[in-house]
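Feature request disguised as a bug: please show the residue count (204) next to TetR/AcrR family transcriptional regulator in the output. Example input:
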Amino acid sequence: MDGSEQLSKRQLQALQTRENLLNAGRTVFLENGFQKATMTQINKLAHTGYGTAYVYFKNKDDLFTELMETIMQKMYKVAALPFKPRTKEEALAQILEQTRLFMQSALEEKEVMKVVKEAIGVSAIVEDKWNSIRARFIAGITKDIEFVQKSGLAKKNFDATLIAKGWFYMNEQMMWQLVLGEIEQDLDAVAENLTALYTGGLYK
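Example output, currently without the count:
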């Protein structure tokens, strides 16, 4: 008997209600933006009873951070791709592909990411969530840098954590500019230039 069969009818109904609220939340945030969206609107669209949303989420900020976690899954998968290059050429090719996929994932969720950008600027809860997402990426990048330093592909005099932070922040800034349409260059040009800048300084 699997986990779903062990859940009671009430538990299944609660899971469905939560899912309905998240789906409704996504629609409301996309239509109204973060600041103008309300829990009342979300409740109404989800066809749940008055105040039901507050049973599952403390406020719209809490609901939105749950949505953020969902849309970040694609990016997490990119960050989790195996990185064990044996040569500098292999490392550069993998970094270029990861950078391109990271940006592409954001562009595929462009409209939601625009709301994320807005929310980060006005909600401490959402900002904290984004900071935790940043920390997760930076930890993974640090591990990758330490690997290539130990294997002799990269310069050992660099602080892996500092370089990882710088690399992520560059990617993050370009990602927002792509999402908001603030630069003329396309995804491939951005990925190629960022990768060349990063690897040109770190690798031997």
